[in-house]
TrEMBL record:
The keyword Transcription regulation applies. InterPro entries: ArsR-like_HTH (IPR011991), HTH_ArsR_DNA-bd_dom (IPR001845), Metal_resp_trans_reg (IPR051011), WH-like_DNA-bd_sf (IPR036388), WH_DNA-bd_sf (IPR036390). It comes from the Bacteria. Keywords: DNA-binding, Transcription, Transcription regulation. This is ArsR family transcriptional regulator. Pfam families: HTH_5. GO terms for molecular function: DNA binding; DNA-binding transcription factor activity. The keyword Transcription regulation applies. Residues 56-154 form the HTH arsR-type domain. Transmembrane segments: none annotated. Gene3D superfamilies: Winged helix-like DNA-binding domain superfamily/Winged helix DNA-binding domain.
Amino acid sequence: MVSIFFPNGSFRRPACYKRFKRLNERRYHRLENAKSHDVQDDEQRQHVNSLEIQQLAEEFASCRKILLALGDENRQHLIVEMIGIGKCSGVRVGEITERTHLSRPAVSHHLQILKDAGLVKMRREGTKNYYYFDADAKAMNGLLHMLMHTKRIMEDQPDRSCIK
């Protein structure tokens, strides 16, 4: 039996109890239907998100070499120094060694990693090697695509700063 309680402590049954009961049943069914639709929408969103996240993970894995090459502080310093030297025709290991705290073998090692990642190329003239920037278009485009995809996914996410 349904009763209505008042703040002063009294209570009574509503005069139109059957109508009241039907209204509540309709509200309940409407809420249940809305919840089931929300659950279906959430499942579809999660499925799409999981596929998109999986694709992003594959893109990230394909960019691993370039990210590792750019992630090292010494290689970042080498890139800055090579840009600072400003020779478009290329820079020799000795020139870079003079401007950094690294030894010749260390500079050669880091340049090799940058070369393997597709950021730097080498030109040989006799016994001299000249290193220059000629970023591999495929590697750079892959990195840019992965970063834009990451940005798009992050923008589509709801604000999670207030979730506890």
